[in-house]
Amino acid sequence: MCVKVACVGGGPAGLYLSILLKRQDPSHDITVHERNPEGSTYGWGVTYWRGLLDKLHEHDPESARALEQASVRWNEGVAHVRDLSTRRPGDDGFGIGRHRFLEILAARARSLGVRLEFEHEITDGNLPAADLVVAGDGVHSALRTRHAGHFGAELKDGRNRYIWLGTTKVFDAFTFAFVESEHGWIWCYGYPFSPERSTCVIECDPGTWTGLGLDTAAEADGLALLEKLFAGILDGHPLIGRSSADGNAPWLNFRTLTNRTWSRDNLVLVGDAAHTTHYSIGAGTTLALEDAICLAGALREQPDLTQALARYEQRRKAELLSIQSAARYSAQWYENLPRYIHLPPEQMFALLGQRHSPLLPYVPPQLYYRIDRAAGQLEALRRFKRWLGPKVARTVHARALSSGK
Questions:
Q1: 22, 52, 154, 335: which has the fewest C-beta neighbours closer than 10 Å?
Q2: Which pLDDT does position 400 carry in this prediction?
Q3: Mean pLDDT over all residues of the chain?
Q4: Could you tell me which residues are beta bridge partners of residue 267?
Q5: Is residue 39 left, alpha or beta, with left meaning phi > 0 and alpha meaning psi from -120 to 50?
Q6: DSSP string, 317-386
Q7: Taking each helix axis from N to C terminus, what angle separates 379-403 and 365-375, rounded to the nearest 10 degrees?
Q8: Mind listing the pLDDT tens digit for each residue in 83-94?
Q9: Nearest-angstrom CA–CA distance, 122 and 112
């Protein structure tokens, strides 16, 4: 049966879903609507990990090969704290420019017969006639907002401030740098996304942000101050804000989005329109593509649209539980940085790698470090740690609900 699909938003979720649906049935009539001109996108590089790449090779080998070839790779992490540094091996990580990433997916979609309509904004008032409308129009989704009461969207602002920048410094590993200023700690996450550029996300608490004057500084002045603070890792390279056409790079509070339900009649949410997870776990692009994989699978398995959308939502919500928990604890780790920053660098970096743990906030950091080291050698202790962590998380969650926090 030929199905007409309208994907609203030309981001990773909408483009990849169009590719998967066309591969499942070339007779499907699929259009991707994007409000911005082709080739215009925000942000610098996106990051993903080996597990996602393996899934992409399984579901569409051609686009997976193109993405892998266009990505840079690392398998180490390095942390700089004041003048001290420590380096650890890690999982295979990949970085690719967001513009190049979307370009590859768009070219693949076109090759399969998907129509791409740029500079074409879709709202609830001009919804195209389609069997299925996919809202992949981001965290501020106009289609979701139009039916906010039905979807039950809830947005929670994080405490810390962050800014998304680029740099001509090409990092050789996923890089963390923590700098103590006279107004408190400020830190960055850096990773390469091409042979010439890296992404550099800088974060600090509100007191440091205002104390340094970053709340009122012009963009050029703010970048100059940040370059001075992070001179130790930038090696003379500049930080880069957005181009003048895009306006200044803003300081933001991360907004965590959840929705009570993800579909309404023939309208379904994907990617950031459905959920967001804190950038410190580097999972946004991965989750958007996994949404597309799951939705395409549900539509293939279940011919009834209502049941297919329900199956997609049920599966993805279950799969997201652990990653949403990890993101919440990761954000809290950085919000409570003084608890960890004075540890010896190798201990601090080890706990940085454990920041997703629901147990870590409730155990003295040095004790947790010793337990974690021992757990790596004793299977019984490792099993106990895996059992205790979720129990603590459930208890804390229940208390938060009962207190109304």
A1: 154
A2: 47
A3: 90
A4: 133, 264
A5: left
A6: HHHHHHHHHHHHHHHHHHHTGGGTTTS-HHHHHHHHHTTT-SSGGGS-HHHHHHHHHHHTT-HHHHHHHH
A7: 140
A8: 888 898 888 999
A9: 23
